[in-house]
Amino acid sequence: MYKNPYEQLSGKITAPKITKAGFQELQFDTGQIKLNYVAGPDNGPPLVLIPAQMGMWESYQKVMAPLSKKFQVYVVDIRGHGKSSWTPGDYSWDTVGSDMRAFLENVVKQKALIAGNSSGGIIALWCAANLPHLVSAIVLEDAPVFSAEMPRFKDQDRFVYNGLKKLVDNIGDPENRDLATYFNGMEMPVSETRVKRVPPQFIRYLSKKIQKFEDAHPGQPIETGFPSTLRLLLKSLSMFDPDFARAFVDGRFYEGIDHSAALRRLQCPILVLHADWHRYPDYGLVGAMDDRDAERILELAPHACYKKIHANHVIHAFKPKQYIAAITEFAAEIQLLPKLEK
C-alpha cells in the first residue's frame, strides 16, 4: 500500500501575499488520517474553501487574502490531495464527508460557510445535508450536481469521466510514472467541428523538464512549467493520489449521497455559482452543469440563490474579483456579514 510521499513536508507558506495576510499551513490528525489545511486570521465568521478534484489550497491564492479581511478563511486539502494522507482503496463521498465532520468539529468548532469548487461543491452539499448543525450556508461553485451521478456521468455526459479514465490509464501508478503522459490523447472541443489536441512534441518537451526538475529536487513536488496554471497543475498532479480518480471510474466513490435527496433536505442558505458550459455530440457536457441542472437545483431547493459567471470551471482562479464579490454579497444577504453599503 503506497503512501503520500509529501505528507511530512514542511508547512511553510512561500507566497508573500498569503503569509502577509496571516495565513499558516497546518495539519489536523482526525485519528485516521492527516488533513493538510491553511488557516487565516480570525477576522469574521468561518469560511471553509474546498478545492476541486486534483486541486490544492494553492488554487485559492488569488482570493484568500481579500476574503480574510472579512472571514476566518480555511482551505482544506482533502484526503488524496496535497499534503493530506493518501488512502488508496478508501475513497467515497462518505469517507471524505467523515473527514470534514472531524475538521469542522475539532478545528473550526462553530457553524461555517462552506464553499466548494467542482467535486468540492458536492462535499459542501454532503456536509449541509448530513451536518446541518455545523454548516451555516454553502456555496456550490460550478459543482457537478446531477452530472456526476451514475449512469449519466459515464454514459451520457462522459467528457469528465473520460478525462479521469485517461488520468488513471496514463499516471495511475504513483511510484512509476511520468506526469507528462497525463496529456497523452488529451482533447478539448472548442466547437462542433474543431478540437484542440496536445501536440506530442509538447509532451516530450514537458517530460524532459519534469525529469530535469526531479533530478535537481528529489523528494519534492513537481514545480516546473509555464504559464502559472500549468505549473500549478503539474504540482497538484504530483501530489494527487490517482486512486481518488480511479474510484470515480470504477464506481467506488459514489456511496453516500443522492444529489436530489440531499437538496430536498437542505435548510441552510445556498448560493449556486454557475460557470460556462457547452455540449457536443461526441463528448457530452463540457462543464459541470447545464442550465437544466441549475433549474433543477432551484426546483428542489427553492430558497437557493443563483448567479451566472462567465468564466472557466474554476471561477475563483479565473474571475477572482467576481468570486469574492459573490461570496461577500451572499454572506451579507444571509446576515453572516454586515449589510453592504450601496
Automatic annotation (TrEMBL):
Source species, domain of life: Bacteria
Task: Tell me which positions the record assigns to the signal sequence.
Answer: none
Q: Does the keyword Cytoplasm apply?
A: no
Establish whether keyword Hydrolase is in the entry. yes
The record ties this protein, via SUPFAM superfamilies, to: alpha/beta-Hydrolases
Q: Which residue range or ranges hold the AB hydrolase-1 domain?
A: 45-192
> Its Gene Ontology molecular function terms?
hydrolase activity
Q: Which UniProt keywords apply?
A: Hydrolase
Q: What is this protein called?
A: Alpha/beta hydrolase
List the source organism. Answer: Planococcus shenhongbingii
Organism classification: Bacteria, Bacillati, Bacillota, Bacilli, Bacillales
